[in-house]
Amino acid sequence: MNTVTFYIIGENSEQATEQGWFAYAHFLSRHFVGQGAKLYINCTDRQHAEAVAEFFWQVSPEQFIAHNLVGEGPKNGTPVEIGFEGLKPSWNRQLVINMANSHATFANSFGQVVDFVPCEEKAKQVARERYKIYRQAGYQLQTIEIQHSES
């Protein structure tokens, strides 16, 4: 069964900032890649995707994960592919991390979806709508409050 995990971002958490959110997405990516998964990060637009990719380049060498933007990178892909609304991953991916503020319309092609509930009220409401869409599509849903602190 396909699953969706919503990570709830606390108002006073590090993840409430853009850099903290990027760091948490990187932390999750490292976790899943470490388990052998190939994943796709879905961003809002090209600028957002490029910012996430740039963040992934700026981490320490011990934390580096091979990644590429959709349409770039090696022929057989890297463990992490980063794209944005309207694009699909180039290669077979088991998991999507949705950093966009809308439902990943292609999410049903993934066995696992990671999504976020931001602390800002309007974005939180949009996340609730995504939750409803996933539930209506028959996904197994869970929520997790972020306890991790990336330092």
TrEMBL record:
GO terms for biological process: DNA replication; positive regulation of DNA-templated DNA replication initiation. Pfam families: DNA_pol3_chi. The keyword Kinase does not apply. One of its GO terms (molecular function) is DNA binding. Keywords: Nucleotidyltransferase, Transferase. Gene3D superfamilies: DNA polymerase III subunit chi (3.40.50.10110). InterPro entries: DNA_pol3_chi, PolIII_chi_sf. SUPFAM superfamilies: DNA polymerase III chi subunit (SSF102400). Its EC number is 2.7.7.7. PANTHER family: DNA POLYMERASE III SUBUNIT CHI. This is DNA polymerase III chi subunit. It comes from Vibrio maritimus.
